[in-house]
């Protein structure tokens, strides 16, 4: 696959999803970046902003299987992973696979489930496998988790621990549409005369595997890689930070930057590829000191300050 072919394939996917998701192309590109970088996405935003619709639309446009898990306080780990049930007809235990056995899994309102159930996602997200009764089962490939949480409701929720937050390659938000975009949403609904719009697959798992393989060929200069490391290390020494970003953050930034470069039709990474994604990669991995809430200091403002303080390298023109 050539860079131009990679960019065209990404454009087809985004165009198809954009038939339903109006005016959020940058958000859609970042979700696709995370998918092709073999990471997982945490979406933190208000209700009614098409988080579920976006996940379902990507699965439809890419020809992949999709499952949705509604996290609630009484959800059990077996409700996520599945388990063995006794079959009276065969007098044997039979594996019943849970919703985690799909290509794209939406964990809706993940912070509503207790920690034991949240932990059931950890092995799947990190190892692409599930262990049931001592037996390991591989998950479908590709495997992609999109988790959501509501930033305004905290009663009856269980905040994700830092170890689990670190499993997500990016934390994104969709944001409200402007007036023109919201009017277009209404216009598309009344024009089609029905509630649902069925998207058509514009790619398949074989092409997606080829695209992921191409990402591994995208070149990264040492100076650009050093810039990524300096961004991660700067979060650890920031004055307001208790715990900074781990090496998993700089590795995630590397993978996402290669995808971003390929989406732009390039076979090499430039510093802006990393800079444009740094906030989404680093913000959920930065733990502020306990007294920073009184000073109205946020993790996002700390990461943005880091981006301004770290010098951007210059690379030779190709």
What's the level 1 CATH class of the largest domain? Alpha Beta
User: For the record, what is the CATH homologous superfamily label of the largest domain?
Assistant: P-loop containing nucleotide triphosphate hydrolases
Which CATH architecture of the largest domain is right?
A: 3-Layer(aba) Sandwich
Rg estimate, integer Å: 21 Å
Task: Tell me roughly what share of residues is in helical segments.
Answer: 40-55%
Examine the coordinates and then state which fold CATH places here, giving the name of the CATH topology of the largest domain: Rossmann fold
Strand order of the largest sheet: 2-5-8-1-9
Describe the main β-sheet briefly.
Answer: 5 strands, parallel
What is the overall pLDDT average? 89
Number of domains: 2
- What oligomeric assembly is this protein in? single chain
Structural class comes to: alpha/beta
Structure characterization notes:
The protein folds into 2 domains: 3-205, P-loop containing nucleotide triphosphate hydrolases (Rossmann fold, 3-Layer(aba) Sandwich), CATH 3.40.50; 219-309, Magnesium chelatase subunit I, C-Terminal domain (Helicase, Ruva Protein, domain 3). The protein is 44% helix and 15% strand. It is built from 12 helices and 11 strands. Strands 2-5-8-1-9 form a 5-stranded parallel β-sheet. β3 (82-87) and β4 form a beta hairpin. α1 (3-17) packs across α3, α9 (222-237) crosses α10 (247-263) and α9 runs parallel beside α11. The mean pLDDT is 89.
